[in-house]
Amino acid sequence: MLFSRILLLFPFVAANALSTSAPAQVPTPKAAYFEATQLKSFYNTYTYTAYTVYDNTSDEPPTEVQGVGGTLTLNADGSYQKRLTLQMNQGLMPFSQDGQFVIKGDSIRFAFTDRKGPDVQYGTFRFDPQTLALEITLIGYPSGNRGVYVLQGQGAPPARAVKPAPAASKTTPPKRAKSGRK
After folding, report:
1. FRET partner for 62 with CA separation of 20 to 30 A, picked from 6, 7, 44, 177?
2. What would the 3-class secondary structure string for the chain be?
3. What are the Basic residues biased-composition ranges (predicted)?
């Protein structure tokens, strides 16, 4: 079943594999869509940690693709470099793609050129500037299907340790509040 789901998205994935390094010309992202503190951390190199395929032509649950790896670099000038790897039955399949991206609100558009010519992928994203977690949902093929990529930004701040509360002393009892009665 997993193989058939991946085959449904194969035109989408194959377009990535056949892309060349000549990026399509697309306007650069606009800083106005992010708070200033978020913008700097958004432009980063991310590591792919998960990829889930949602197939609306099937009653089966979403497929979590195993063996996802590689990186996605989003640059402040609107260029990107995608180096995605998927572990398939035939072995490791690398997908390399260079192009331009545009963000507007929570929408993201990737434009690139492959052997078939210029192409564009549309989707949405969620970004957490505190953890540098990025989730990108791209519209898949056939229409209505989608692929969800989960990525982790490099240089993510370490998880904050919770400072334990001071232990109560065993030798002195806790002080009691005085009541207003006499």
Report:
1. 44
2. CHHHHHHHCHHHHHHHHCECCCCCCCCCCCHHHCCHHHHHHHCCEEEEEEEEEECCCCCCCCEEECCEEEEEEECCCCEEEEEEEEEECCEEEEEEEEEEEEEECCEEEEEEEECCEEEEEEEEEEEECCCCEEEEEEECCCCCCEEEEEEEECCCCCCCCCCCCCCCCCCCCCCCCCCCCC
3. 173-182
Q: Residues in the chain, how many? A: 182
User: Which of 16, 90, 85 lies closest to 51, judged by CA?
Assistant: 85
| CA atoms lying within 13 Å on the CB side of residue 146 | 12
Question: What would the two tokens of residue 157 be?
Answer: 């701040």
* pLDDT values of the chain reduced to their tens digit, one per residue, 182 residues: 444 444 444 444 444 444 444 444 444 444 344 543 456 789 999 999 999 999 988 889 999 998 999 999 999 999 999 999 999 888 999 999 999 999 988 999 999 998 889 999 999 999 998 899 999 999 987 788 999 999 999 986 554 444 455 544 445 445 555 555 44
User: Would you say 12 and 88 are in contact if contact means Cβ atoms under 8 Å apart?
Assistant: no
Find out whether 26 and 100 touch, Cβ atoms under 8 Å.
yes
